[in-house]
From TrEMBL:
Pfam families recorded: CoA_trans
Organism the protein comes from: Bowmanella pacifica
Entry keyword Transferase: yes
Keywords, alphabetical: Transferase
Transmembrane segments: none
GO molecular function, one term: CoA-transferase activity
Recorded family membership: Belongs to the 3-oxoacid CoA-transferase subunit A family.
Protein name: Succinyl-CoA--3-ketoacid-CoA transferase
Keyword hit for Transferase: yes
Length: 233
């Protein structure tokens, strides 16, 4: 069964084939469940002109935010962008194109793209700038706008465990956007905390089946906390 083994030994191999002007879909929510090492490899490669699809763009100096430092991202499709001063600067200066998308719509764009559905109707965004120029149809007396789905040249995902065939489990809230992102890439790369042998993950516990995954790499993670909030005694 060696031909089914999807484990790679280096980040260079994990991201081989990524080129300028490609679209990258990234899992994660804030700094939770982000593929830290894969993002670092993209920075190291120096590719530019990227369209990046993710809930947000990290923070200054960490997560997807590091790709802004050398202006590697041309366009960001995201739901929330308020934790990054460099992002704000590049947006206001016109260096960075931004497509703000409601969070649930963004998740469904990924899921639909992975399912081979080219577009879907949603009531979210109707009557706002999000819906401008989009086709409108009425369902059950309520207007809906047509939203195109999203697929990417690469999807980069962080999982807790994966077996050598690419079957994945996510841990707690780190699941977030990762399962949808994993289905929507032509090449899906999963960075994991632990690689186990096939059969070690019960089929009923698998979140992302290995059929969606092309490469698996074991990473090490800082797991930085985005914002610490503590209560005084």
């Amino acid at each position: 069964m060696a031909g089914f083994d999807k484990v790679v030994s280096s980040y260079e191999e994990a991201m081989a084939g990524l080129e300028d002007n490609m679209t990258v879909i990234a899992g994660g929510f804030g700094l939770c469940g982000i593929p830290e090492g894969l993002i670092g490899q993209i920075k190291k490669m120096g590719v530019t002109g990227l369209t990046v699809v993710s809930n947000n763009c990290g923070v200054d100096g960490f997560g997807l935010g590091v790709l802004l430092e050398d202006r590697q991202i041309r366009k960001m499709i995201a739901s929330y962008v308020g934790e990054n001063a460099l992002f704000e600067k590049q947006l206001l200066s016109g260096e960075l194109e931004v497509e703000l998308t409601p969070q649930g719509t963004l998740a469904e764009k990924m899921r639909a793209g992975g399912a081979g559905i080219p577009a879907f109707y949603t009531a979210t965004g109707y009557g706002t700038p999000v819906g401008e120029g989009k086709e409108v149809r009425e369902f059950n007396g309520r207007p809906h706008i047509l939203e195109p789905s999203i697929t990417g040249d690469f999807a980069i995902v962080k999982a807790w465990k994966a077996d050598r065939y690419g079957n994945c489990i996510y841990r707690h809230t780190a699941q977030n956007f990762n399962p949808m992102a994993a289905t929507a890439g032509k090449i899906t790369v999963v960075e994991v905390e632990e690689i186990v042998e096939p059969g070690d993950i019960p089929p009923s516990q698998i979140h992302t089946p290995g059929i969606y995954v092309n490469r698996v790499i074991k990473g090490s993670f800082e797991k930085r906390i985005e914002r610490k909030v503590t209560r005084s005694a």
